[in-house]
Design goal:
Blueprint lengths: L6 H19 L5 H21 L1 H22 L1 H20 L6 H22 L9 H15 L9 H24 L3 H27 L4 H9 L1 H7 E2 L2 E2 L8 H19 L5 H19 L4 H17 L3 H19 L5 H8 L7 H19 L10 H7 L13 H34 L3 H20 L11 H18 L11
Antiparallel strand pairs: 1-2
Helix pairs in contact: 2-3, 3-4, 3-5, 4-5, 4-8, 5-7, 6-7, 6-18, 7-17, 7-20, 8-11, 8-12, 11-12, 11-13, 11-19, 13-14, 13-19, 16-18, 18-19, 18-20, 19-20
């Protein structure tokens, strides 16, 4: 017996060595492996005989799902791309009639990414990369949402349970992205993937416009009179492509257009500029068929910030031409319902829905002022109707992202959220002027414009609550910080020569 070891320890070590030999060396090509496969085959057969086809499908899903889950944890870059894919195409798969909790699957991918992040942080701790104002404010925002469980004015704690999960998990993705995106090559891959998925969405919207909706889509739109009234306006169906609704579709097209504009303004070849111009025109053209007036304003707003940050003679000529084209589109007489709806976006005083929203804002202001912590997470909208029916806030329409924050989290929460958005923009602008690598500089500008247009779009609509915008928003700010980190270090007196 070895000195210092008990027989039990030796026996445990021998058993571990034997298991390692079975699995790693012999790869179950032995008697225990045969027994295991026979037992698995008998168990699967019995399950299918008892439960039918559903059990077989679950077995297939498990066989495919376990390797994918392993890949998401161990290979986080694959997990990030898979998350982007699911965020973009989630509602398309739902409308296909897939009988599977896809929303839970998306939450699971995020959970696995967080698990992989924590495991890698334990093995290779790098907490220093999170030391920036955005990280601190995101943590403060998550903490404030968690503390809402003690909100004395909250009508329902269950509404908080259902709501805080999506708020906290999605925001934690910022830390995952910030840690796992480590190379210019992967930054490029993420942005190209983003543009490719957006392009698929634009093409599908054009298909809906010029070829028509699928029968299942049309049945869904016609099933609810309220939904029909929102989608069928002036004799024309609003298009939503692969997204949840026309608002999410149009906002994602506006964000993708800003990315193309920022990259094309950098040092790229003429061929790439042509490709980016085609993509941008496709995004803009398809966006018009969404009928979302709030999104139409995002383009000139994004162009204004772009012109300020990239100001030079060529940009000035481009901005002048864009302003002239926009002015003609706004003022030209037309009977086209799509173009007319675009024009009304720049004449809010004549828009009946805009005036109704202004009245709702005035109506709710005294309640916000009386409740600095708000009415609690989930007190308005769908969760309010479900968990606190009959309450004042449950019947209030949260038609603005900032208004929802003010109503549910109070003016303290609104102030904190506005500070967060401001800090994101300030970080993006600061990094843009500091970065020297031309490609990283363009990507930083692109992500800053995305945050800017989504931040503005969150006023007339709820821009940050639906996939993929909720993922893309925090992906954008993480890429800004990553671009600054990947840029060459600033010169010092010791390395200047």
């Amino acid at each position: 017996m070895k000195e210092g070891h008990s027989p039990d320890v030796l026996k445990m070590e021998t058993g571990r060595d034997k298991l390692r030999r079975w699995l790693r060396t012999e790869k179950l090509g032995n008697t225990p492996g045969v027994v295991l496969l026979v037992l698995a085959g008998v168990g699967i057969s019995a399950a299918i005989a008892a439960a039918g086809l559903k059990a077989g499908l679950l077995v297939i899903a498990a066989c495919a799902g376990l390797p994918v889950a392993y890949a998401v944890v161990v290979y986080p870059r694959f997990g990030i791309l898979l998350l982007m894919f699911m965020a973009f195409f989630l509602f398309y798969f739902i409308r296909m009639g897939i009988d599977f909790p896809l929303g839970t699957l998306l939450d699971g991918i995020q959970g696995l990414l967080i698990l992989g992040f924590l495991m890698q942080q334990k093995a290779r701790p790098e907490w220093g990369i999170f030391r920036n104002p955005v990280s601190y404010l995101i943590l403060a925002w998550i903490g404030y949402n968690l503390l809402q469980v003690f909100n004395p004015w909250a009508e329902s704690r269950m509404a908080w349970v259902y709501t805080v999960r999506s708020v906290a998990v999605v925001m934690l993705m910022y830390f995952v992205f910030l840690y796992q995106v480590r190379s210019l090559r992967f930054v490029r891959t993420v942005i190209h993937t983003w543009l490719a998925f957006a392009f698929m969405g634009a093409l599908y919207a054009l298909k809906q416009e010029f070829i028509g909706f699928k029968e299942s889509e049309f049945a869904h739109m016609s099933s609810d009179p309220l939904l029909t009234s929102l989608l069928y306006i002036d004799g024309h169906w609003r298009k939503y492509s692969i997204f949840s609704d026309p608002v999410a579709f149009s906002y994602n097209m506006a964000a993708a257009t800003m990315i193309c504009l920022a990259i094309a303004s950098g040092k790229v070849s003429a061929t790439k500029r042509i490709v980016l111009a085609v993509l941008a025109c496709t995004y803009l053209g398809s966006m018009l068929y969404s009928g979302t007036r709030g999104a139409y304003v995002l383009i000139p707003a994004g162009l204004a910030l772009f012109g300020i940050l990239r100001f030079n003679r060529a940009i000035l000529v481009f901005m002048t031409g864009a302003a002239l084209v926009l002015g003609v589109l706004i003022l030209v007489p037309t009977s086209n319902p799509t173009l007319y709806r675009f024009q009304t976006a720049f004449k809010p005083s004549t828009d009946a829905s805009f005036n109704v929203r202004q009245l709702n804002h005035k109506k709710i202001q005294p309640d916000i002022q009386r409740h600095p912590l708000g009415g609690g997470l989930g007190s308005t909208g769908m969760w309010g109707v479900r968990f606190s029916p009959g309450s004042f806030l449950a019947g209030f329409p949260p038609d603005s992202g900032y208004l929802r924050v003010a109503v549910e989290l109070g003016w303290i929460g609104l102030l904190l959220f506005c500070c967060l958005v401001f800090t994101m923009l300030n970080t993006g602008i600061d990094k843009f002027y500091r970065i020297r690598n031309p490609e990283l500089k363009s990507y930083c500008l692109a992500m800053t414009l995305v945050i800017f247009v989504l931040g503005i779009g969150n006023y007339p609509q709820e821009a940050l609550v639906q996939f993929p915008s909720s993922i893309n928003f925090y992906l954008a700010i993480s890429l800004i910080v990553v671009c600054g980190r990947l840029d060459r270090p600033p010169q010092t007196p010791l390395n200047r020569n």
